[in-house]
Amino acid sequence: MKKSLTLLLCLAALFPCAALAEETQITLGDTFTVGGEPITQDASAPVYLTQETQTHDDVPESLEGLANRVIVIAEAGDYRISGTAEDTQILVRAGEDDAVRLILDGAQITCRTAPAIVVESAHDPRVPGTYGVTIELAEGSVNAVTGSHTVAPEDDETAIEYDGAIDSQVSLGFEGTGSLTVDADNEGIEVALGHLTINGGVFHISACDDPLNVAEDGVGTLTVNDGYVYSAVKALEGGEGDGIDSNGTIVFNGGTVINLAHPSSQDSGIDSDMGSTINGGVIVGAGNMYDPIESDSQQLFMMLEFGEETDQLVVVTDENDNPVFAYDFPHDYMYIAFSTPELTEGTYRVYLGGEIEGEQTDGLYTTITSYVPGTRMQHGGGNAQQRMQPGEPVDGGQPADGSQPADGSKPEGDQQAPEGMDEVIAYEQALSRIDLNELLKDVDLNALLKDLDLNELLNAYNATDLLTDEQIAEYFGDINLDVVINARKGFGGGPGFGGPRAMDSSSDVATSDFVLSRETTGFTNVVAAQAEAAE
User: Fold this and answer.
1) Rounded to the nearest 5°, which phi and psi values hold at 306?
2) CA–CA gap between residue 398 and residue 106 (Å, rounded)
3) Domain residue limits, the chain
4) Which of 56, 189, 407, 499 is deepest in the core (most CB within 10 A)?
5) How many CB atoms lie within 10 A of CB 282?
6) What is the DSSP letter of 296?
7) Residue 185 C-beta-side C-alpha neighbours within 13 Å
8) Helix, strand or coil for residue 16?
9) 3-state secondary structure 404-435
């Protein structure tokens, strides 16, 4: 007993900070308090108040000259934030060894000319799934963040540009069981450098661009382990954005995550440059661009490419018409992906509409008590994107013959497919048949990469950069790769990442049996079956 007590006392002496750690309470309002005392403006304090005025061109004329109150957190520690504040920013500017935890406990923060929460510096382990800065949503708390963005001056190469309502320059993690609503005029939650991990919480994120974004090219990992996330791009005219986006990878391990892209832009519900993997959870993604999900995902998933965009109730049943998935989409989408733990290999049916009863949240039915099938769908017999011709819109809103309105106007929301779309589709389909791991297993990668610009390769990956002229000729044949590059740039993408992709036709003939397996997860040209309604 004495030895145990002595050991505990020694540990307490060795780790006094851990043993004596206390939270610092930050209370928002017309005035701010820290630990019950008025906040100081002394920049040597762990928490202090300053002001900042944004002057970039995106600041509305009515807000020019507005000074935001900025609460700076400069040291490691746990900070519990509560109360309401307008034109206010929480700024973490800590040392590289400082771990910081922000506990949102009934916090309502609005910043109209800049992000509401910014992490400029703090500890960053730089390992996917780990983080030095935590935003915890306190149990039972309801929190809201409304934020803007900043634009760096063109003549200042050192200035940092913040795109998200919550924006971080280091890896960031979310924990807790409370709720957080994010309303953004650009990105929602963005990690510019490092990784983003969600381990809990209830999120409703609405943004004018990507609601969830990890921006470090070829590096950042966006991981969802638990919680509930509704991530949707605002349906504003002329807008764009993916439902969830990573310039590195995305990993879903659990929770419920609904990802809705802008309804009329060429963006994906789930978009990543280096692959998206589903290992668990209930996942929904919808958009108008195909972005593949990794075939080695531990949990089965289904990707539906509709012949025409749909905003109807989509219900997937087993062979006996027992529903396994139902979502009532709020906008028109062409590509819809979903995954649930209940999906197994086998034959399914897909319906649009019908009469459904049960419990739903944000359109996703968590309980279905009854369902009377609507229009039964079929797949195969073609590919939706293959039917496009250069100059036709890619969102399905234009007549198939490419005709224009009599007054010559362009239908609202349409985007024209760039010249060379046929070449792009042929390229993507050829690329999908290549196993680079197998092809390059005996290649000296050091010798292969020594003459390549690795920065350029990471930012605009092109598989042909890794192949010999003979291999390019064998696998890509007569495809004009210069045309492919130019066409993809017409969609805002480079020769690799970010451009339009195409799914291989799921069946040579149309069929209403959706046979799901590890090898077959995508179903193309989903249209009403020959029998207009289910029997």
Assistant:
1) -80, 145
2) 47
3) 419-489
4) 189
5) 20
6) T
7) 17
8) helix
9) CCCCCCCCCCCCECCCCHHHHHHHHHHHHCCC
